[in-house]
Amino acid sequence: MIAKAFAPLAVYIAAAVAEIAGCFAFWAWLRLHKSAVWLLPGMVSLAAFAFLLTRIDSDFAGRAYAAYGGIYIASSLAWLWLAEAQRPDRWDLTGAAICLFGAVVILFGPRSV
Predict the structure, then answer these.
(1) Which domain holds residue 102?
(2) What residue intervals traverse the membrane (predicted)?
(3) With 0-12 CB in 10 A as exposed, 13-18 as middle and 19+ as buried, what is 92?
C-alpha cells in the first residue's frame, strides 16, 4: 500500500524537475541572456515532463494534472531555495503545504464508479 502511494509521488517529482529545468532553460535564454543552445536541453526536458505525466495512473488527464499542481508548487520552492539561493518564507511554505494537501485529496480521494 505504501509503495503504491509513493510511486505517483516519484513520477510527479521527476515531472516537476523536468518541467522546472525546461522552463528555466527558456528563462536563462530570454531573461539571463544565455545562448540559444540552452533551448535544446530545455525542449528535451519539457518533452520528458509531458511523457512523465502520462505515467500517472488516472482515468482522466485533468485529474492527474490537478494533483501535479501541488507537487509543482512545492518543487518550484525547492528550486527557488536550492538553485536560486533564495530561501522560501513562511507564506511560501504555508501555501505549498495547502497545495500539497489538495494534491493528496485529488489523487487519493475515494471515487465513485
Answers:
(1) 2-108
(2) 9-30, 36-53, 65-82, 94-110
(3) middle
